[in-house]
Amino acid sequence: MKRDTWAFWGRLAIALVSMVFVILLLLGGTVAANYKGLGNLVKVVTLVKGQYLFEVAPEKLVEGAIKGVVESLDDPYSVYLDAKTYSSLQEQIRGSFGGIGVLVGVKDHHLTVVKPFPNTPAAEKGIKAGDIIIQIGDRPTKDMDTETAVSLMRGPVGSRVELTIMREGVKEPFKVPLTRQEISVPTVEGRMLPNENNVGYIAISQFTENTGEELVKILHELRAEGMEGLVLDLRDNPGGELNSAIKIADQFLDKGPIVHIDYRIGRDHTFNAEPDQLDLPLVVLVNKGSASASEILAGAIKDAGVGTLVGTRTFGKGVVQTVFPLDNGAGLKLTTARYLTPKKHDIHKKGIAPDVVVDQEPDAKSDKQLETAIKLIREKIHK
């Protein structure tokens, strides 16, 4: 037998032992009843080695088995992250990366542009909110998770990537070539509203490690400009870093719980607000694109009664993911808990109902939701 064949079977033996060990951990007390399943695993791997047309590295079989374990959970939020995807996720959490400057989400199984950021390659090439990205390079994106999509769009500064876009009102898909740049996108934007000298407006696009500090800074600036009421815009914010959402909620709550974290294994935990709050009239804008950490913040504000929610029902992602580093630079994003609002409402797959329902047509010339929020703020200020 050739030396490389011996090496292959040696690596395969190690891989099989590792896989079987993992499966034994998963099966626990049901191992005896599932021994045939373990036998099938070994048999399938042996058949792939002996009968499959193309040679496959043992490491690839192990990675496939790991992916299969995670996919068997039937949980869209639990994902095995290869080294490249895991690295991109860490960059996203930090808030700085080489990329094209676009925020994406999944809508009806399609990768959809939520927002192109100003002064980035995506904005300069005319990519718009609502555009459907049907292909990144040569990779179709239907049913692709956002972490994989983001990893494909990011890369070294100066490198190129091509997106294939489907746009409403345009008959045929079209290609957009882009050159990646260093992207350091602020997640918080704020200003005093024109013709509303005492009303401030802050929009949070997502939650990264820096979002809390960004918000505190902008709040300080707007208060120095005479802000007497605030509109906080969480529309189309897909969420992000849990601790960031908690820090921001603490700016608006004076006491009591912000969120309850409910674990299947381990001790549950409640994050409580600390004294001193931004004691100003507050209206929060939400819609079906407000998810996860956005809902933690909106739910805390609603339950504590410190602000009024305006818009439409939120997305309904009431589960928490933990990212675990694995060997070889890979990672695992795993659903480890659910969260409950301060009044212990479980909003998963239900969302949060706004206090004032205002629908917004996609092509409307005016922002009815914002107009309603401003009206409510005026009434609160002049009470």
From TrEMBL:
Tagged with keyword Protease: yes
Alphabetical list of SMART domains matching this protein: PDZ, TSPc
Recorded GO MF terms: endopeptidase activity; serine-type peptidase activity
Pfam family, one: Peptidase_S41
GO annotation, cellular component aspect: outer membrane-bounded periplasmic space
GO biological process per UniProt: proteolysis; signal transduction
Boundaries of every PDZ domain copy: 86-154
Similarity-based family: Belongs to the peptidase S41A family.
NCBIfam families listed in its UniProt record: prc (TIGR00225)
The protein's name: Carboxyl-terminal processing protease
Organism: Desulforamulus putei DSM 12395
